[in-house]
Amino acid sequence: MADPESSPSGQVIPIGIWDVLLLVAFTGFVCYYFLLRKKKEEDGDLPDFSFKVRQRLSSVDDGETGSFIDRMKRKDYKVAIFFGSQTGTGEDYGGRILKDLRRMRIGCTLLDPEEHEMSELSRLQEIENSLVLFIVATYGEGDPTDNARTLFDWLGETDAETANLTGTRFAVFGLGNKTYEHYNFMGRLVDKKLEEFGSERFFRLGEGDDDRNIEQDFLMWREQFLEHVREQYDITAETLGQIREFEIDVHDPPPSAVFTGEPFKINSYKTQKPIFKAKNPFLSQIRDHKELHSAGDRSCMHVELDITDTRLKYSPGDHVAILPVNNSDMVEEIGQRLAINMDTVMSLIATEDSPSHKTNPFPCPCSYRTAFQHYVDIASFPRTNLLESLVEYCSDDGDKQRLREVTAPGEAGRNAYNDFICVNGRNLLDVLNALPSLKPPVDLILELLPRLQVRYYSISSSLKMHPDRIHVTASTHDYITQTGRRGSGVCTSWLESLRGNDGARVPIYIRKSTLRMPMKPIIPIIMVGPGTGLAPFRGFVQERHHMKESGKGVGETRLYFGCRRKSEDFLYREELESYEASGALVLRAAFSREPDQPKVYVTHLLREDGAQIWSLLSQENAHFYVCGDAKHMAKDVHSVLLELTREHGGKTVEQAEAFIKQMKTLGRYVVDAWS
Questions:
Q1: Mean pLDDT (whole number) for 102-130
Q2: Mean pLDDT, residues 441-460 taken together
Q3: Active site residues
Q4: What mean pLDDT is predicted for residues 286-290?
């Protein structure tokens, strides 16, 4: 047999490097074509629905620039609505105003300030009769929401000449909570700065108070705002009917292409890879789950979450975010009431002319069961825009009238809503059951329900002492509504249901907090944390105990804790008393329900220790922390702090207030409270 590399005459033909490269390339192509390409065909490309879901992912149309002003001009939009939202309420209100305006035939768009250049606002002058509306929430103690951080920075870094908003018009609605010191800080800041930048106020600043009834505050402002819009834009034509943002597409994709509760990426719960964050949570296994109360009718749980080999790191004071799951019994009842097959897989996709800035309202495709269990909020009070949309789906005139009453404009409607929904504690299922003739389409319900929000809990452990665990301390709240239904917190009741479930996993990620210990451990700290307000301070105490055991110099660590009875709800009593015995902690505990004893609260103990506290604050630059109830406790503690500053520091009221303010500015007085 002849040598394949020899000529017929027997001479060897030389092979160069280029011949070898061409041969390798050809061989690679053949392998790809017959092996890899065939494998892809066997796996199957994503079906048509995937294109429908993804074809609108880009926020700009073909041929458009990223400028929202250019898009407004091209689409003949008159109003730009920006939202700053942490829990979704601000975004929801923005979407409702957008629909109101579109029903008046006014072109408008809903925008996320994080995705646009605020400097472009000056170009609104190029659009005749234009308006910019900001609906912004204040988060925590006067902070902007995450998506409004760039807006906040622009307001602080820009001057009137640079902003150049002369010839533009604006309106602002702020969302806040009066239990916090800096109530509606962001709304007031935006309103103030836009006027300073030369823009004309189109309508008065609106403010919603979440401590009372933010929905009613918004509805009152919205009614007056829309009336002003009708006058200014000379709207005489009858408004259009209901505007739908999404249409449903039912399909049968392979299981690998269906969301099952993941917040962002399909199958991210099956193939877990760091870095774990909001869009890629870690499924943490529960390693310990126990009751902390030894008696009584209340409950508080201690949960330990495993973070072994996750690269998740936290500092004392940080929060763990938990993605909750709705009650499965309630989910199934809703499915029965809506007469749907809960296993059906579908996608809600933005219509061609949708006012929404989103492709889908939640991760799609998914089953109806997944949507109701993981993605939409079915437990809170239904908002008026949902109830208003349900009227036409009632066949009984009495049911229609009831919904018209609770969604009517003015004080009568607000009172009716309060009586029917708030006083009775009705959620979506309660409304469906209270109105037997109501048979709404499931896609309308899913479109209008708000997203189920992440819950945040202060981490109650130190990474130094528990390198592979996150501890959560959470109280459960069970109650009976006026309609006789048993109610409870969405996340805490779900966590409670996992007790004894070996292998149960919880989606989590870490969120940094402003609650930070001093950089130098020698600086004393004073902590006030009644009830579950103790949670972050347990982490503080553990951290400083570990430092002390390691031979580091640690300043005084003083904790003021409060509960009802020493024998009933003294959280982590043995642990705290052991730290006290070792000299790592000065423990001061107040009990408000001890038999035959006067009621004692943390404020009483603070007054008793006024001289010592003042000495630590004034002589040793101690840091002062408060965690817990914002409505009463945090305010009372603040008042006591002012008192002891005046009494033991010899200061006037003005001087005491200035001293406390300076402590806050320097990060020495930090409050992490909730209402």
A1: 95
A2: 96
A3: 458, 627, 672, 674
A4: 96
Give 594 or 38, the one with higher predicted confidence.
594
Calculate the CA dihedral of residues 616, 622, 627, 629 and round it to 10 degrees.
Answer: 50
Q: Please answer whether residues 591 and 562 qualify as being in contact, where contact means their C-beta atoms are separated by less than 8 angstroms.
A: yes
Q: What are phi and psi of 473, to 5 degrees?
A: -120, 110
Report the C-alpha gap between 368 and 355 in whole angstroms.
Answer: 24
Specify the pLDDT at position 357: 75
Q: How far apart are CA 210 and CA 537, in angstroms?
A: 27
How far separated are the first and last CA of the chain, in Å rounded? 91
182 burial (CB, 10 Å; 0-12 / 13-18 / 19+) is: middle
CA distance 203 to 229: 9
- Alpha-carbon 327 to chain mean position: 19
Residue type for 409, please? Answer: P
Q: How far apart are CA 525 and CA 586, in angstroms?
A: 10
> Percent of the chain beyond pLDDT 70?
90
Q: Within 13 Å of residue 131, how many CA atoms lie on the same side as its CB? A: 23
Q: How far apart are CA 145 and CA 185, in angstroms?
A: 11
pLDDT for the residue 181: 82
Tell me the average pLDDT across 514-540.
97
The candidate with the shortest Cα–Cα distance to 128, out of 192, 95, 79, is: 79
For the record, the structure tokens of 487 come out as: 């109610």
Q: Which residue has the tokens 């003083």?
A: 558
DSSP result, 217-235: HHHHHHHHHHHHHHHHTT-
Q: Give 674's strand partners.
A: 629
Going by pLDDT thresholds of 50, 70 and 90, the confidence category of residue 64 is very low
In this prediction, residue 503 has a pLDDT band, given cuts at 50, 70 and 90, of: confident
**Alpha helix stretches (DSSP H) within 339-461:** 368-370, 384-390, 397-406, 410-417, 428-434, 442-448
